[in-house]
Write a structure and sequence with these properties.
This protein is α+β, with helices and mostly antiparallel strands. The protein contains 14 helices and twelve strands. It folds into two domains: about 180 residues, no CATH class; about 140 residues, no CATH class. A hairpin with a 2-residue loop joins β4 and β5. α2 packs antiparallel against α13 and α12 packs antiparallel against α13.
């Protein structure tokens, strides 16, 4: 018989014992569905992290102040007043490979336009901030060095803020109040989406000159030290230059801050993309672990199929003897039962792929989680199911092929 004839006979045998066949492949279906669902969410989470890294900007280092201490009570990282605008200038001037060094301050602010208002992140930045973040202006113009020099009351708005305050109106040239201070909207930033720290909406932001922020809105630190900043964002020319730049910044700031040898740093140098890549690697490892656990169901399903195929050999002993008496070779008998096991597993695998995909899409829509259903995940799951079919069918097929035709024909 040809392979197609063997497949047709296998499908007919499965049809005659439909309910038993469904119960037999249930383990395969559940296992494949679990693997597909887990890989879809795992790949989606990994892509989300990669998108966050991309939208943060490339080749970045974030320098933040150290901790504050008041009466023995220690604050969190970044709460101190140990980082200044002069540090940012020194980094740009002294460290090789640094393209821009952008200091900034940040805080929450209430934006008001007419009878509409919106609370958002207000960032006091320099013109170099947009260069460091690879961020462009969709409409209007960016912040200029003159805006910083003259403490101009101008603002760049993210698309989320524009949507909340202006709707379909053109915001360019319009006036909004931040607190009690009026600002003129000079531009709208290109949308970056939800990829910032803690997954926050990066478009929910208002950027103003840092000098203006210190003088009129966010001057709490300036009252302690006029040059204090919340962070310095450093953009390096290439990823390969980041380690050297990090060490150079650390050495420079220890020198300019006059820290004693062996003493702790009063600042922190972080690589945002590195932290996110560690997060992505952790999620990838967890996905592989959960996928391996889910694959156990496929193995259990394969064992069930082997058990049913052995029962099938016993039930069809007379049929096997008759086929051998009519000239069927042992290899043909063996291949027939092996093909039946493989067809059973493949049908279960296809059903599992459909079920897993449906579950992943449904959960993603309800919970809002990112998914990525890839062809590689589908092929991996089907390949595993195919392997389970081959392994589970080998022994029953061997048993069927070894039957003696005379003894087989005598069986009832």
């Amino acid at each position: 018989m040809s392979t197609l004839q063997s497949i047709a006979i296998a499908l007919d045998a499965l049809r005659q014992n439909f309910f038993r066949s469904v119960l037999t492949v249930l383990g395969i279906i559940i296992g494949v569905a679990s693997v597909i669902t887990i890989l879809a969410f795992g790949n989606g989470a990994e892509q989300q992290v990669a998108e966050r890294i991309r939208t943060m900007g490339s080749n970045l280092l974030m320098v933040r102040p150290g901790i504050s201490e008041n009466g023995g009570v220690r604050g969190q990282v970044g709460s101190g007043n140990t980082l200044t605008e002069d540090d940012a200038i020194a980094i740009a001037r002294e460290i090789p490979g640094v393209m821009v060094s952008a200091p900034g301050v940040a805080g929450a602010g209430q934006l008001v336009r007419g009878n509409l208002n919106w609370n958002t992140l207000v960032g006091g930045v320099t013109a170099d901030y947009l260069v460091a973040r690879d961020w462009h202006v969709a409409e209007g113009r960016p912040l200029l060095p003159e805006d910083q020099q003259h403490a101009a009351k101008v603002v760049l708005l993210g698309t989320t803020v524009v949507k909340q305050l202006f709707g379909a109106d053109d915001p360019i040239g319009q006036t909004v109040r931040i607190g009690t201070v009026p600002f003129t909207v000079i531009g709208v930033l290109v949308s970056k989406g939800g990829g910032g720290a803690m997954g926050r909406d990066q478009d929910d932001v208002a950027l103003i000159p840092m000098s203006t922020a210190k003088l009129r809105l966010l001057g709490a630190r300036s009252q302690i030290h006029r040059g204090s900043v919340d962070y310095v964002m450093v953009k390096v020319g290439s990823a390969a230059a980041i380690p050297e730049a990090r060490e150079g910044i650390r050495a420079l700031l220890r020198q300019t801050h006059r820290l004693q040898a062996g003493g702790p740093d009063d600042f922190h140098v972080e690589e945002p993309s590195s932290a996110m890549e560690v997060q992505a690697a952790t999620k990838r490892s967890l996905t592989l672990l959960l996928g391996a656990v889910a694959s156990v169901s496929i193995i259990v399903g394969g064992i069930s199929i082997m058990n049913i195929m052995l029962v099938s050999v016993t039930e069809r002993t007379r049929e096997i003897g008759l086929r051998q008496a009519l000239g069927a070779r042992r290899a043909e008998v063996r291949n027939q039962f092996l093909i039946e096991a493989v067809v059973l597993c493949l049908l279960g695998g296809i059903a599992g792929v459909a079920l897993g995909s449906a579950v992943a899409v449904a959960v993603a829509r309800v919970a809002g989680w990112p998914i990525d259903l890839t062809l590689a995940s589908v092929l991996f799951s089907l390949g595993f199911a195919l392997l389970a079919g081959i392994l589970s069918g080998l022994y029953p097929a061997y048993r069927a092929a070894k039957l003696d035709p005379i003894e087989a024909l005598r069986s009832e």
